[in-house]
Write a structure and sequence with these properties.
alpha/beta, 4-stranded mixed sheet, two-stranded parallel ribbon, 7 helices, 8 strands, 45% helix, globular, binds guanosine-5'-monophosphate
């Protein structure tokens, strides 16, 4: 399972969490629904929204552009929920600059071999895309130390429980301004 499964399981267990729907220029996979999985958009529409300052962050990931629309964060917050962004490292670091209270959780695969096995097992990517994703995962690992918390995604139940703990701790203390590590 990947980050998506982890977040889905977390939301089954915890109320009060809302997930933003990202925008992307990549093509939908079979079964993905526009406005639910992603806001799928053309290069032109993405360009226009960047120019209009509509993104909290955006980045090139795996040869396509992905981004978080500020309106998505507002939608979740106005529903009284805490916001989860499931985004890449470039996006994570950009969000930290924009929102210093944000808590960055790095979800890492048990190993590169296991990540490769999962990507192939999922059967949604062609060989070239798998290679790009593996190369990106290696370079993302270099930023793990910049994150507030690291969770190894080997055992789903344990990883979900860890993530739940992290959220409880930070919610109780009002975000990153009161980092759990400050009390260590
Ligand atoms: P996928 O193509 O498999 O749906 O997503 C590829 C990667 O894009 C995900 O692993 C995720 O890290 C990243 N991603 C998805 N949405 C966003 C976003 O809104 N912003 C950024 N920076 N990355 C995203």
């Amino acid at each position: 399972m990947g980050k998506g499964t982890l977040v889905a399981r977390l939301r089954e267990r915890m109320s009060g969490l809302g997930l933003t729907v990202s925008a992307t220029t990549r093509a939908p996979r079979p079964g993905e629904i526009d406005g639910v999985s992603y806001h799928f958009m053309s290069e032109e529409e993405f360009d226009r929204r960047v120019a209009d300052g509509e993104f909290l962050e955006w980045a090139w990931v795996h040869d396509h552009r992905y981004g978080t629309l500020a309106s998505e964060v507002e939608r979740v917050v106005s529903g009284g929920l805490s916001v989860i962004l499931e985004i890449d490292v470039q996006g994570g670091l950009a969000v930290r600059s924009a929102i210093p209270d944000a808590v960055l959780v790095f979800v890492e695969p048990p190993s590169m071999e296991e990540l490769e096995r999962r990507l192939r097992g999922r059967g949604t990517e062609d060989e070239a895309s798998i290679e790009v994703r593996l190369a990106n995962a290696r370079s993302e690992m270099a930023h793990a130390a910049d994150y507030d918390v690291r969770i190894v995604n080997d055992d789903l139940a344990r990883a979900v429980a860890e993530l739940e703990d992290v959220i409880h701790t930070y919610e109780k203390d009002g975000g990153h301004a009161h980092d759990v590590r400050d009390q260590a």
